[in-house]
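Lecture notes, unit on protein representations.

Consider one protein chain, 299 amino acids long.
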Amino acid sequence: MSAANFVQLLLSGLAMGAIYALTATGLFIAHLATTRLNFGQGDFLMFAAYLSMALLLAGVPVLLVMVVVLVVLALMGWGLERFAIRPLDRMRALVGGQYSWVLTTMGVALIIQNVVTLLWGKSSQYSPPLFSANRQNVVQVFGAGVFVEELLVIVAALAVILLFYALLYRTRQGRAIYAVAFSPDTAALLGIDVRRTVVLVFVMASVLAAISGVLVGPIVTVQPHMGLVFTVKAFAVASLGGFANPLGVLVGAILFGVAESFSNYVNSAFGDLYPLLLVMALLVIKPSGLFGEAKTDVR
């Protein structure tokens, strides 16, 4: 492998790793506050990719596209919590009620897939570039030809993640999320509106999916079933990093994206499989993840 190929594969892996980090962070924040996973997170990303593609093809300016997609996905996140998650809280005493959110979120994902198929069809499509004049705009980095979109996706995604972590650790809302994660009853006694915090968590996760969808559209083919792939990979990334450690999620996503890029170079037929097998092997050795702590969950 030449040095140019190495740089190209590394940057491509970083670009996809940044997208996985955004998606996995959406899973992390929902799990943190509710101990639940949104199995439709990847399909929210897929819907955002299609919506941004349609708006871009219609000639809508990029900034307005971002605003529209963020608002629509935020409303979808609110709707998911209000109509699919909240009613399940009343079913905890019933058999299986505490786990029915698994099927509920999967059901929402299937609904989104079918809506997208009806609106845009089953065929794979290409979204227009966000930051450059055409999809083939290439720059030279250490002798490697790299798409401008990939470089800017890396910068934009990592900037969003850092901003998200700042909000999570430096704001009152972030501290409220961690208080609810520790104990909803104790948080309520401290004057925290637990229900509003849970709603905020799902809205934040949906906003992260919106940003992921807009950014990933120009660098991959967009098709109705891509959401499941991103959900599985994001779950693997979050597990690898440890669900209790947001920094571990970021590092795990970067490692996964780079490993996927190089494995596809070695074997394009099964390149996506090898990183997943590696994650499974690592979790057998360390079930709490590379950056997680092996301790009892007290929530």
